[in-house]
TrEMBL record:
Keywords carried by this UniProt record: Repeat
Residues covered by region (Disordered): 28-73
UniProt organism field: Dioscorea zingiberensis
Keyword Membrane carried by entry: no
InterPro entries: PPR_At4g14850-like_plant (IPR046960), PPR_rpt (IPR002885), TPR-like_helical_dom_sf (IPR011990)
Stored NCBIfam families: PPR
Residue spans of the PPR repeats: 159-193
Designated name of the protein: Pentatricopeptide repeat-containing protein
GO biological process: RNA modification
GO molecular function: RNA binding
Record flagged with keyword Repeat: yes
Pfam families the record matches: PPR
Amino acid sequence: MELTTRTTANPSMPHLIAHSKNTTRLKMTRKRASPSTRTMATPQLLRRPQLPSITITSPERIDEESSTRSSRPSDVLRLLDVLQLPVDADTYSSLIKECIDSRDAVEGAKIHAHIQRTRGSTRITRRHSILTDRLLLMYAACGRLEDARELFDQMPVRDVISRVIMVAALSHGGDHVEAAQLFVEMHESGCARGSALFFDAVMAILGSCARAGDLHLGQQVHGLTLKLVGSSACAHVARSLVRLYCRKDQFDRAFLAFREMRRLAGNKKRNCHSSSFQSVLRACGSVGDEGWSGMQVHADTIKTGLDRDPFVGSGLVRMYGKCGQLGYARTVFDVIDSGLRDTVCWNAMLASILGQQGCSTLELLRFIGEMRAAGMEPQESMLNEVMITLVLET
């Protein structure tokens, strides 16, 4: 079969013409192309297909582009302004929440400026106090204490929410004096009475008292809580008091506060925190009762199942070591699962061995061998004590 071309009278109509006696040739007649355009007349099936270009983008580039394309809260407000659509309070609250979750104070300040501009005043009116509380929480969560204080001073109405937020912000910001003054003002105004947020303010100010070492105010807040809320809701307050008493070396009071906390918690595991046990165990190691108070705390850890916790276990080992009860320290150490023993736990046991009078060199070397076999290394200060002990023994 042969494919040829020739000029015909009607270029638009191809003709099929049969030829020859023995063979039939298929001829397609059409207008002959000029030499300059013959390459353009190449049949479509003979051309190399034009494949689409493929660009391989790295995952880092994809993340960068997606983050660039993602709209920010200020972009949403800008779009609504272009469309001349009003922004309601729910939209503002949602955008402020995004800034709180992302800790983005820059975007939050833009939303704050937009609210001021659309309301036609530099202050937010009483009707928009909910937005003010959200903005105050945003500044506090982002660590912008000065902006939070300025907004709080401009508020025409300061409800219990704004006061509690400001007490917590000042407390975490290290301004204990102003936090205490604001807490006293809130109590005297009576706005927090009967409110569930009063408990949050109490926890914030007790944390501030613990950091500042203000034992007197902490005791007053504890008494106020017992009077207004009752003992059934003071387990968390007692936990804060344990930390406060330990920082002020009031170990007897710390232990009493801990016993009160355990009584209020009802010996329920879900209400127990390893940090509370660690604080009171440090106190028990300094009471000087040969470990009696520490044994009571140890019994509580067994009841709650926290005796196998490596953090609590390390505190127990350290406490028994300070009280001269090396046998109890070793028992607690052996109870902790070997896979959970970290460097802190091993060094606590090593410190207990070193702290004993007449420390056995053989026992000391044997324990260091166990420690290194477990892939742990003694602290440098511990190694220095070991070297001194070995020299004195020889």
